[in-house]
Amino acid sequence: MINYNEAIEIIKSEISKIKLNLEEVDIFESYNRILAEDVIADVDLPPFDNSAVDGYAIKFSNRNQWNIIGEISAGNYSSFNLTENDAVLIATGSKLPENADTVIPIEDVNVNGNNLQLKQNITIKKGINIRTQGNDLRINEIALKQFTKIDSKSIAVLASCGKEKVKVYSKLKSALLSTGNELIPINEKPAEDKFRVSNIYSLYTAMKEMNHTVINLGFTKDDKALIRNKVGAALEMNIDILITTGGVSVGKYDFLKEIFAELGVQEKFWKVNIKPGKPIYFGVYESDNRIILVFGLPGNPVSSLVNFYVFIKPAIDYLYRQNSLNKFTAILQNDLKKKDEKRHFSRGVLYIENDELKVTSEFSQSSGNLVEMSRANCLIEIEESRLNPKKGEKVKCILI
Fold first, then answer.
1. 3-class secondary structure for 72-88?
2. What is the distance between the alpha carbons of residues 230 and 232, in angstroms, rounded to a whole number?
3. Mean pLDDT score across all residues of the chain
4. What is the mean pLDDT of residues 196-204?
5. Which of 399, 393, 356 is nearest to 379 (CA)?
6. Is residue 141's pLDDT more than 70?
7. How far apart are alpha carbons 330 and 203 in whole angstroms?
8. What 3-state DSSP class applies to 7?
9. Structural contact between residues 349 and 320, judged by C-beta atoms closer than 8 angstroms
10. Which three-class secondary structure state does DSSP give residue 89?
11. How confident is the model at residue 252 (pLDDT cuts 50, 70, 90)?
12. Is the alpha carbon torsion for 260, 262, 267, 272 positive or negative?
């Protein structure tokens, strides 16, 4: 059985073999997509010297009063050739008139007719409150780098560079299948030994949160022939990742590991020294120059979701070169039990108090407790060699 670090390196090595395709999308459809090229500025940003505040544009001198000769509003430039005696009322973002090199904020002056006077105890310096041409970016410089994830901040840069169409990397395509005799549809009430199938919904949403495509293959009973047909059909689909839940442990009805081998999936590892989610399977299916990564996750809903967060999500981020800041060090607010040499991923609640990051885990760590999982916002990562972390100690946390 391998450890967590070994497992994640194997997955990264295999996922890096997936070829990322490019596509061009409308800028409004580019949100949360990954840039497939460097975006180059086609103009200076800002394209002209402009005022950073509402105020009065002047040609700097040691004066404290001026004669107002006009005004300029944003998008309505008027030409003024200022002398040291002149001032022009100017709005934020408006182009500066010729010879203007300083803008006095409107709250720092008194106005009487066309007379402008600096308020008492106010001093000004040459060049204040001006955004100079090209101060943000010069023409032909890189505005956004390849592999940038597009958000509301970066999309504004795209717009400023005139990128009505944006080249992005295509989304990964995945398929999801759950197995288990105990599973029933969510529109039925559980009776006797049945459970509503929840894995499909949590994993489907987890992939969607990463903005990738998911095909829901539903769930099936622990019937080897039926599962084999479902998995075989999935491996013929145009997908990059197949995720199954259930059937990868050592029970009488755990058929998936055997089925994968029969269908030509090359096993890369089975079982990782972690808790929860130890019986994870990972393999690779190659056919006709296609590669499909196959993840066999435990049937337990909490374990399967934890497996997604600690194996699948970081691997996808690695493929798209995303260094998401989702790991933090926090101060533990309660003792945690850990008596084995597995790497634990315990559910916790991360919060800020008195400017310190703190984390509490004062609820059940049962791998079957979905409600407690829903209340957590992080996983507390406890390395193999560390035993029984105590209140007040620092621990690593992964945001979920």
1. EECCECCCCECCCCEEE
2. 5
3. 94
4. 93
5. 399
6. yes
7. 27
8. helix
9. no
10. strand
11. confident
12. positive
Q: What is the DSSP-derived secondary structure letter of residue 246?
A: S
CA atoms within 13 A on the CB side of 126: 9
Count Cβ atoms below 10 Å from residue 143 Cβ, excluding itself: 20
**Residue 107 burial (10 A CB sphere; 0-12, 13-18, 19+):** exposed
Strand partners, 353: 356
pLDDT reading at 61 higher than 90: yes
Give 299-322 pLDDT, tens digit per residue: 989 999 999 999 999 999 999 999
Delineate the domains of the chain, giving CATH numbers in brackets: 4-20+170-319 (3.40.980.10), 24-43+137-169 (3.90.105.10), 50-131 (2.170.190.11), 327-399 (2.40.340.10)
Residues 6 or more apart whose Cβ sits within 8 Å of residue 107: none
Three-class HEC string of 249-275: CCCCCCCHHHHHHHCCCEEEEECECEE
Structure tokens, 92: 């934020």
Distance CA 258, CA 85 (A): 89
pTM: 0.89
Residues facing residue 177 across a β-bridge: 244
What is residue 369's predicted lDDT score, i.e. its pLDDT?
A: 73
Per the DSSP assignment, residues forming a β-bridge with 358 are: 331, 351
Angle, CA of 242, 243 and 247, to the nearest 5°: 120
Cα(78)–Cα(29) distance, integer angstroms: 38
User: Which amino acid type is present at position 192?
Assistant: E
Rounded alpha-carbon distances, angstroms, from residue 118 to 68, 87, 121, 196: 13, 12, 9, 73
